[in-house]
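fyi for ur records
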Amino acid sequence: MADNKENCNSGRVTRLAKKRAAEAMALKQQRPNKKRVVLGEIQNLTNVGVKKQSKRKVKRAVAVEEVNLNDDDPQMCKAYVSDIYDYLRKMEIEEKRRPLPDYLETVQKDVSANMRGILVDWLVEVSEEYKLLSDTLYLTVSYLDRFLSMNVISRQKLQLLGVSSMLIAAKYEEISPPHVEDFCYITDNTYTKEEVVKMEAHVLKSLKFEMGNPTVKTFLRRFTGVAQVDYKSPNLQLEFLGYYLAELSMLDYSCVKFLPSLVAASVIYLSRFTLRPNEHPWSLALKQYSGYKASDLKECVLILHDLQLSRRGGSLVAVRDKYKQHKFKCASMLTSPVEIPASFF
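which gave:
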């Protein structure tokens, strides 16, 4: 009887072991077939990407955030929304949260504006591959620029800095951030898990764990709502066009010197001009809520306009391809007149 019981238990253990082995094999076979990318000699690459060959089964929050200025909406925090944005405006000018406007010239010796653009362009594709929130992408670039303002780095380590910054930003923003192994894999295991973790710690210490700074997206939410006050119904085309131009701004090193709120205001200015080129794009309401006059935005708007028309960064296609999709109302397919009237400033 005891022998039968022992044989029965042994059979259960064997079946359980086989079941676990089968589950492990199935899990291994389900691993996404992502194209791994090594940026390597980054200055020689102009169109490195991550081919979207699979879809991770990770549910994310809806990317579109519709801003409603209805005073009856309790979520708009009518009683203290002005105080919140006053606080954010003060926060964005704090020296510890700002990159140096000329760090590539004064700090870096082996990194150029072109290399930075290629890296950011690739990070856009990585964020799409892992279905990350746009807030995560903006924070990633913010960490990247702030770190490069304080630490000299070689071009061989630039991609490592990029994925480590995105790892930190994902942990800050995402419900289910990718694992360290995912970021190693996406670089074709150019860097080990230990190297990514070590760079992550280096970034955190350099930034003194100040991770929660406002970005262009922070202010764009508010300004987009104000910009739609004179529309009869919410204009998704305006909203997605704004998101598109804002992500283009991250590619260009010339935009690093501008405050996030100024870039967000410039994005709204150019978006309205694109959709209604015969009307003055800047309203009194936008001036009041943003704190900027049209003339304050001129330099940034002209840079964004050149990016929109591919007169700058034409070889960087990740953002442009992303916003060709119908879910983004094909925002990157929209174009504006080649010149903005001087009288509009």
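The chain has two domains: 96-213, 216-344. thats all i got for now
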